[in-house]
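Saturday, quiet lab. Running sequence design on the structure tokens for the scaffold JK sent over.
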């Protein structure tokens, strides 16, 4: 089950309930088990809220009280603003970046073409942005396959360059043990 902390803003109350209900239906969990598990996954002010409540006897009572006190106020504009300002982080792989942006877009109910544009625009490499734009991927799945292929090629290229650097280091080490001769050491003195 997901954790819920409204101050962290990682998921809206509506998405939290939606996800819990998907899991409840998918795994055929009974209401009392879900109520116990959900209440133990509340964090921060949500934990304080649940501790102050009477015990809930059914899921629908919990949902009504929860949605009343933690209304979902996100809209698609907020998601668009978040995505337009998102950039790939320095230590983030291209695949991690893809999934971060995809989950944000899906949460905001943005269509695939919009998510693709936001993902491409958030890349730091201008040449890669141009290449991906020209490829005209029609779905997020197509973009994912393209990014995976690019990621694999980069690993191979980086591995190749790393091996070349290792060879240079080894060559320097090997050459250190050999004496070097400088033929310009002798100078002629005129008397």
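Result came back. Writing it out in full:
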């Amino acid at each position: 089950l997901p954790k819920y902390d409204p101050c962290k803003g990682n998921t809206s109350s509506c998405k939290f309930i939606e996800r819990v209900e998907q899991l409840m239906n998918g795994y055929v969990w009974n209401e009392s088990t879900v109520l116990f598990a959900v209440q133990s996954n509340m964090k921060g002010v949500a934990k304080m809220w649940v501790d102050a409540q009477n015990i809930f006897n059914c899921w629908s009572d919990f949902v009504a009280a929860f949605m009343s006190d933690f209304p979902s106020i996100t809209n698609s504009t907020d998601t668009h603003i978040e995505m337009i300002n998102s950039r790939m982080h320095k230590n983030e792989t291209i695949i991690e970046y893809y999934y971060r942006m995809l989950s944000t877009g899906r949460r905001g109910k943005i269509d695939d073409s919009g998510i693709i544009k936001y993902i491409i625009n958030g890349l730091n490499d201008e040449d890669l942005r141009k290449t991906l734009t020209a490829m005209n991927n029609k779905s997020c799945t197509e973009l994912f396959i393209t990014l995976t292929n690019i990621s694999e090629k980069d690993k191979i290229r980086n591995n190749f360059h790393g091996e070349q650097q290792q060879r240079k280091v080894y060559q320097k080490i090997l050459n250190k043990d050999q004496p070097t001769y400088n033929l310009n050491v002798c100078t002629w003195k005129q008397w």
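Notes for JK: Residues 6 and 118 are 25 Å apart (CA to CA). The mean pLDDT is 85. Ask whether to fix the surface positions before the next round.
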